[in-house]
Design a protein that fits this description.
The complex is a heterotrimer. Chain A is mostly helical. Chain A is built from nine helices and no strands. Chain B has ten helices and 13 strands. In chain B, a hairpin with a 2-residue loop joins strand 11 and strand 12. The chains are: A mainly alpha, B alpha/beta, C mainly alpha.
Chain lengths: 225, 274, 228
């Protein structure tokens, strides 16, 4: 199949490893945007989610927002914000953050909710402050779910960053968009393969992190009731 | 007549639930298996409709080895009432009762008609017919369960702790109604319970089981109370602690089961006019 | 607004196209996920492995799949078949977990009772398990339906037209109104399909909305399905 050999040709051609449009640079861009977005989104979503989970306040609002963002088309959000904010990376990055928040928010509040109520009750009854309960009980016990939320968010952002190449963000999606524009299928396929490898690799990393978080969690204590 | 012949049951994980159990359950009478959890009573009951197949021995119904019968057909011919009623949550009361009729090929109309007809027998009113199980109280659900077991007019009725999950007052009521029903219908009932009082109240024949399906004593309630086979039975029926307030008294020639307050809890002689 | 009125036929055409592609993909994905999820639930040993396998599928960014499918399938690049297959696969990938959970949510006691009443294995699957799995299946289906509608718009980038075409066109022409109308149309479609699913659920499963006399039936499994 010439498609396969063309694609391999693109991926192995040393020309494609130099300069702004080289694979290393595009990969670095993709990773950088993902990292930035997750960092900004995480700073917003995780504390907020923990607070919602701990207090139970605004839970239904959070659930509703998380659900409705799912209906929001990523491409629509990207193009709209890019036009509204104007030329530059701000518009696309805001879009990415908007999409990164819901999974992390859901992970954070469900992590707290997953902790046995009796355990929290016990912590309160031995005299822990609310902050201590959160830091010493709820977060450690709920950590695997928090990491799980970050994991979904990372996948969402990697996929959306690919699409964001359409509005000029750069990253690996650029090969798909440029290839489409000039009818170079090998370039599109190469970009797709790279994105898939990146997504699987990052998912693998987070699977390991999630495993570590689960493994470090103390074994559940038998109920004292 | 149901007969167990040298029944053995070892589960795939190696647990021996029953080892060498033989017993005859006479027709048109109630046999109660009673024992603590793990004594194999439910396993024995479920062998009658082949929900469990023995690993050794035979179960015979009217002298026919049921292993030769089709499982599904067999189950449709035997009434089964279980704890929490086991109703299908997505079907209305009337459709739950008619389940087996429909499985046996009855038309929707016929199943409905026969199911409606049995409602009064189990103390339900027509207004409950179109409700879903979740809309009924535990006691009402159990009545529906009994109706479902009876609607096909089976010769055999299996009851697996049917009243174990309802509150004591409702349980009393249901027990009394079962006694009344049995007087009218004359089924061969196999009943499982861990409650010895319930066993003595309902059973014509009571089988007290130890762990592993070992029979500690078989007999009519009066015989067991009057003459416990050993210390295990004595302790199980509560005689050793003096806690067994339930005892047999002869009142005007009728053997009456009497509880601690002197109140009659049941009549032992079934042939005695009420 | 003027633009919308001038182009109402175009938008309507894209809307219906978007609707049928989404509905067909969701339906195929659902149909495929049913036996897989059921089987996974029946066999706990392969449950974990099969769920992980479909999880990996879901990890792959959609745009990459839209690009790579045509040569794999031998279909034309602009063929709607690629998009249908890609979206159905995603739908199935999300749905398998829901179907496994749905069948797992059916109370073993009810299944036992059904067998004891004399349901054959096949009768039990279709007359007891499937209807009782309904509420959790519906919850999963609602999630899938919404995400399929949203995901389809990405296919515009490889040249398959749908409501997402309003985004690319609006962006190229620097025309925000067109994009906003596209977003609104997609959200409206997603809500519409969701309402249809809820309505179908109410009609098909009247029992799941029956009022309990003492306290409402536990809906834990349902909310879990929605959040997943």
């Amino acid at each position: 199949m010439s498609v396969v050999s063309d694609t391999i040709g693109f991926l192995t051609d040393s020309i494609n490893y130099n300069g702004a449009d080289g694979i290393p640079n595009r990969l670095a861009e993709h990773l950088l945007y993902t990292a930035e977005t997750i960092a900004i989104g995480g700073v917003i979503a995780i504390p907020l989610g923990l607070w919602i989970g701990h207090t139970g306040r605004f839970r239904s609002v959070a659930v509703a927002i998380t659900g409705s963002v799912r209906a929001l088309p990523t491409l629509g959000l990207l193009t709209a914000l890019s036009l509204i904010v104007g030329i530059g990376l701000t518009g696309p990055l805001i879009s990415l953050v908007v999409l990164a928040v819901p999974p992390m928010l859901a992970g954070a509040y469900s992590s707290v909710e997953s902790v046995n109520r009796q355990t929290i009750d016990a912590a309160r009854s031995v005299g822990m402050t609310e902050m201590q309960i959160l830091r010493k009980v709820e977060i450690p016990l709920g950590l695997p779910i928090i990491v799980g939320g970050i994991r979904s968010s990372v996948l969402q952002v990697v996929a959306t960053t690919t699409v964001a190449a359409f509005v000029g963000l750069g990253g690996l999606g650029t090969y798909i968009i440029n290839g489409q524009a000039i009818g170079d299928y090998a370039q599109m396929a190469a970009g797709s393969v790279l994105v898939i490898v990146l997504a699987l690799a990052l998912d693998g990393v987070f699977a390991v992190l999630q495993g570590v978080a689960t493994g470090r969690r103390p074994a559940p204590q038998p109920s004292t009731a | 007549m149901i007969e167990y012949r040298s029944i053995e049951k070892t589960f795939p994980d190696g647990t021996e639930a029953v080892g060498d159990f033989s017993l005859v359950l006479p027709s048109r009478s109630t046999t109660v298996f009673v024992g603590s959890s793990g004594c194999g009573k439910t396993t024995l009951l479920r062998m009658v409709n082949r929900m469990v197949d023995p690993t050794g021995g035979q179960v015979l119904i009217d002298d026919v080895d049921i292993a030769t019968k089709d499982k599904v057909e067999l189950r449709r011919s035997i009434g089964y009432v279980m704890q929490h009623a086991g109703l299908l949550p997505h079907r209305t009361v009337i459709d739950n009762i008619g389940t087996v009729l429909r499985l046996n090929g009855a038309s929707k109309g016929e199943a409905r008609e026969r199911s409606m007809a049995i409602l009064p027998t189990v103390g339900l009113s027509e207004s409950e017919a179109n409700r879903y199980p979740s809309q009924l109280s535990g006691g009402q659900q159990q009545r529906v369960g009994v109706a479902r077991g009876l609607v096909t007019d089976p010769n055999i009725l299996l009851m697996d702790e049917p009243f174990g999950a309802v509150d004591p007052i409702v349980r009393d009521e249901l027990q009394q109604e079962l006694l009344r029903l049995q007087r009218e219908l004359d089924k061969t009932i196999v009943f499982v319970t861990h409650d010895i009082d319930e066993a003595f109240l309902l059973g014509d024949q009571v089988v007290i089981l130890r762990t592993g399906g070992v029979v500690a004593q078989v007999g009519a309630p009066a015989e067991i109370i009057a003459d416990p086979a050993d210390d295990f039975v004595r302790s199980f029926i509560g005689l050793d602690k003096g806690a067994r307030s339930l005892h047999v008294e002869d009142r005007d020639g009728v053997k009456v089961l009497v509880d601690g307050t002197g109140k009659a809890a049941g009549v032992l002689d079934v042939n005695e006019p009420a | 607004m003027t633009w919308f009125l001038d182009n109402v036929d175009v938008v309507r055409g894209l809307f219906f196209r978007h609707a049928w592609i989404s509905v067909v993909s969701t339906a195929i994905g659902f149909a495929v996920s049913l036996p897989i999820g059921w089987y996974a639930n029946e066999h706990p040993r392969i449950r974990g492995a099969s769920l992980a396998a479909v999880g990996v599928l879901y990890t792959i960014p959609s745009l990459a799949v839209f690009v790579l499918l045509p040569p794999l399938l031998g279909t034309g690049f602009l063929s709607v078949i690629n998009v249908l297959i890609a979206l159905s696969t995603y739908a199935a990938a999300i749905m398998v977990r829901s179907t496994a959970d749905a069948f797992g949510s059916v109370s073993p006691a009810v299944l036992d009772a059904a067998s004891a009443a004399g349901f054959s294995r096949t009768q039990r699957i279709f007359q007891v398990e499937l209807p009782l799995a309904g509420p959790v299946l519906l919850a999963g289906l609602r999630v899938v339906s919404v995400s399929t509608v949203s995901m389809l718009s990405v296919a515009t980038l490889v040249g398959v037209s749908n409501l997402g075409s309003l985004f690319t066109d609006g962006f190229r022409r620097d025309f925000q109104t067109e994009i906003v109308i596209g977003i609104l149309a997609i959200v409206v479609l997603a809500i519409l399909l969701d309402l249809l699913l809820v309505l179908a659920g109410r009609l098909l499963m009247p029992w799941s909305h029956a009022q309990a006399p003492v306290r409402p039936a536990r809906r834990l499994s349902l909310t879990k399905g929605t959040a997943a």
